[in-house]
Amino acid sequence: MTTVTKKDFVDRIAEKTGQKRGDVKHTLQLFLDEMIEELANGNRLEFREFGVFEVRERASRIAQNPKTLEQVVVPARKAVRFKVGRLMRERIVLCEPSAQVAAAH
Q: Domain count of the chain?
């Protein structure tokens, strides 16, 4: 398994589109910033075929410290949930090569 960074995405997109790396990096960062802002405002982000991001409230609960066995209260918090869309699910589960997916669309 390999780790792919934002820089890797910027390089790939710049190469495929012929745009300058700086422009692609700026656009990608704006996109990510907008996603964060919308999630912070409690909005649901839906990208057809890709998936859905939404913020969910996790209830407070009682947990146990494994070292001391002491019970501790874990406060309620918000968490981002991602639900996989159809295209991503098919690609990951079926491991379709990207050429086949591109030909299908």
A: 2
The CA distance from 10 to 20, in Å, is 9
Q: Average pLDDT for residues 74-92, to the nearest whole number?
A: 93
Residues 39 and 70 in one domain: no
Q: What is the pLDDT of residue 30?
A: 98
**Distance, C-alpha 79 to centroid of its chain:** 12
Could you identify the residue written with the tokens 């996109």? 31
- Which residues touch 85 (CB under 8 Å, ≥6 apart)? 47, 48, 49, 50, 51, 52
What's the predicted TM-score (pTM) here? 0.73
* Residue at token pair 């996790």: 58
CA–CA separation, 78 and 96 (whole Å): 34
Same domain, 38 and 67: no
